[in-house]
Every structure is written in C-alpha cells, then in structure tokens.
Amino acid sequence: MPHKYTCDGEGTNPPLQIEGLPAKTKSIALIVDDPDAPNGDFVHWLVWNIDPSIKDIREKSIPVGSVEGLTDFGKPGWGAPCPPGGTHRYFFKLYALDTALDISPNSKKADFLNAAQDHILAQSELIGLYKRTDLV
Q1: Has residue 136 been placed in a domain?
Q2: Per the domain annotation, does 58 fall within a domain?
C-alpha cells in the first residue's frame, strides 16, 4: 500500500476503480479491513449504497450519496493503516448488491454483512500490504 494513504503519510483514502459489475447491481459496498491486527480483524473503512454508475472512488473522497458506517476507530471515514509491527494485509472487499441498504450510519461491519447477506450478486477483493519502516 502506498505510504501516502497510511498514518505515516497523508492518511487519506486511496483511489479505487470499479468495473465488471453484474447488470442487476443496484448498489455497491466496500469494506476495508486488516485481519492481522493484534486483536483480530480491524475495520478501516465501511461504505455502502454507492451508486453502480460510479466507476471510481477518488482519493480524499467518498462517492456522493453513499453512506459510511463505523470503523473500528469508532467513527465513520477512512481509518489510515498504522500497523504496530510487521507487515499487515489490508483487504479491500467490494460487493455488488441487488438493492440499496436501509441501515443506520452507526452500523458496523457485522450489521452491514447481516443486512447484505441475501443481496450479494458478486464480490471481489484486492489486498494491499503495509509495513511501517520506522519501527524497530
């Protein structure tokens, strides 16, 4: 993962391109999490109700009309990776859904997955790696 998008850089969300959605996609969702965190899976970003006509998510922004849920930082928005040691994997999971979700912005990953489970048409995954070089 580029340094720029971590706690050691600008800490802003990276740009992402979206393509190959199923024809019946009504909304897109994104989860970014780190399964290598000291206490297990750690959510860095949760966004749903992204319009399927959107083909890219620009850095330092969220798609207009989408909803950000709560990360494991306890707030919405991109939580910059800042691993306490070693190389961590950051999973960018994109979901094509057959509906828009009507869940609270205070929802967490488990709430999202529960609401989305019967509506997932397709999903894809991209993994970014990051290791802080200034740690001994």
Answers
A1: no
A2: yes
